[in-house]
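2024-03-11 09:14:02 INFO worker-7 job=invfold-0412 stage=load source=structure_tokens
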């Protein structure tokens, strides 16, 4: 509840919580010229080594669904680097 005793809007993160916009994510530009076939797969593998989530020009790209679900499932959330957003590394 807020100071005015109103419930926060659905999807509103708790105060102090990190959001996806706060994360330093690798860029995967799927509209990059020449990004097709083997070049596409190589670039995707390179970005995937940096974490399970990437930023693109229009959206976010989930690179590893199993790591994403374990990071966002029950318990403490994890960043793409595998650390808790509130922990220091």
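2024-03-11 09:14:09 INFO worker-7 stage=emit residues=89
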């Amino acid at each position: 509840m807020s100071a005015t005793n109103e419930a926060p809007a659905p999807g509103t993160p708790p105060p102090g919580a990190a959001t996806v916009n706060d994360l330093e994510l690798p860029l995967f530009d799927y509209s990059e010229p020449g990004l097709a076939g083997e070049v596409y797969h190589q670039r995707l593998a390179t970005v995937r080594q940096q974490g399970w989530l990437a930023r693109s020009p229009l959206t976010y790209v989930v690179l590893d669904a199993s790591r994403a679900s374990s990071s966002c499932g029950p318990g403490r959330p994890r960043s793409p680097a595998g650390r808790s957003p509130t922990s220091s590394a």
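2024-03-11 09:14:09 INFO worker-7 stage=report msg="Residues 37-48 form the longest helix (12 residues)."
2024-03-11 09:14:10 INFO worker-7 job finished
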